[in-house]
Design a protein that fits this description.
By secondary structure, the protein is α/β, with parallel strands linked by helices. It has one domain: Rossmann fold (3-Layer(aba) Sandwich), CATH 3.40.50. The chain has helices at residues 14-24, 55-63, 75-83, 98-116, 129-149, and strands at 3-7, 27-32, 44-48, 69-71, 87-89, 95-96. A six-stranded mixed sheet has the order 3-2-1-4-5-6, with helices on both faces. The longest helix has 21 residues, at 129-149. The protein starts with a strand and ends with a helix.
Length: 150
């Protein structure tokens, strides 16, 4: 059975994920180190991990299975999920792929170095309504692909 794992601490598309999961009867595991409210939705399980820099990521990577889906902006976590045969999608609808994850990791490292040196300041662009819409569309097609894999 396909399950959806949400790297939940800063995820802006929890409600959208619930809507798609409910349509397909899929369980959602919202993984966090605290600070998010439990959902009363019967398909949502809140997983609270110990506080730590990568505790939620580690839990997801250790529990995700082939054909499951991870919703995350975290590139190293996405790489770990892909390695397990799972699918990974960003909240803006961009799908992480085997072909692109190496470049994404390299670009992340480069940008981190530039930020640390002070050459680049600021973060990603604000999350938009278009990002939310793109996520809904892509999550639907990703769920369908996962169900075919499973």
């Amino acid at each position: 059975m396909v399950e959806i794992y949400i790297d939940a601490d800063a995820c802006p598309v929890k409600d959208e994920t619930r809507r798609v999961a409910a349509r397909h009867g899929l369980k959602i595991l919202m993984v966090s180190d605290g600070g998010i409210r439990p959902s009363k939705h019967p398909l949502v399980e809140l997983v609270i991990v110990e506080q730590g820099p990568d505790a939620a990521d580690d839990w997801i990577a250790e529990n995700i299975q082939r054909a499951d889906i991870c919703v995350t902006s975290d590139i190293p976590l996405a790489a770990r999920c892909l390695k397990e045969g799972a699918l990974a999608i960003k909240p803006n609808g961009e799908l992480f792929t085997e072909d692109g994850i190496g470049m994404a990791l390299a670009n992340r490292s480069l940008m981190q170095g530039l930020r640390e040196s002070g050459e680049i300041t600021g973060g990603p662009k604000p999350f938009s309504r278009a990002d939310r819409s793109a996520f809904l569309d892509r999550l639907e097609t990703t769920v369908q692909a996962a169900l075919r894999r499973g």
